[in-house]
Automatic annotation (TrEMBL):
Organism: Aegilops tauschii subsp. strangulata (Goatgrass)
NCBIfam families: T6PP
Coiled coil regions, renumbered to chain: none
Protein name according to UniProt: Trehalose 6-phosphate phosphatase
Enzyme Commission number, as recorded: 3.1.3.12
Catalytic reaction list: alpha,alpha-trehalose 6-phosphate + H2O = alpha,alpha-trehalose + phosphate
Recorded metabolic or biological pathway in which this protein acts: Glycan biosynthesis; trehalose biosynthesis
Cofactor dependency: a divalent metal cation
GO biological process: trehalose biosynthetic process
Amino acid sequence: MRDAVRGVAQHFPTAIVSGRCRDKVFNFVKLEELYYAGSHGMDIKGPTKVSNHKAKADEVLCQPATEFLPVIQEVYETLTAKMESIPGAMVENNKFCLSVHFRCVEEAEWDALGREVKAVLEDYPKLCLTKGRKVLEIRPFIKWNKGNALKFLLKSLGYAGRGDVFPIYIGDDRTDEDAFKVLRNMGQGIGILVTKFPKDTSASYSLREPAEVKEFMRKLVKSNGIKKG
């Protein structure tokens, strides 16, 4: 998969947009030529390696929720202590947002976990709670999501408002819907949802699993090579 992503990045500006902390995502992917948008797009940085594409890496930096860092840390410490009583629960600090994972929690405990999280957040009106796949996401109450991150990246690359650009966004989470909606509203590019089952989505197409995503990226690179030839 890393080779497939590397191949795409050689031909097109490529970004990883994730709910996880940007540093964690980079340490997992380990490709310096990519743009990384961590914390649901609230922490964006350009490539650390010279890129073939227009934006200057050191100019692509966006952190719209910096003022919330002390509050996020405070809530992280409180929730970590609270979740100790629920076996399998894990609180992940993603710098500008938090994730409370309950994939390994007994289903009978899910409601109790949700109540505990909501009780903590009652004291923090500037934080909002959303639900992902067996995870509760806690984010600053600002108008910023993966869709905003996509728009920021397009603008930074000089692609905003251009008719000769075709953005492709691939994702498998509810939070990716914000980016799918941006592309649908633009009437340009496509969103691709990764799922084995039919779902309500703003994406235009779907792939069933990561193996199909990898094959799609390889074909994208191959077709671009043929076009240039």
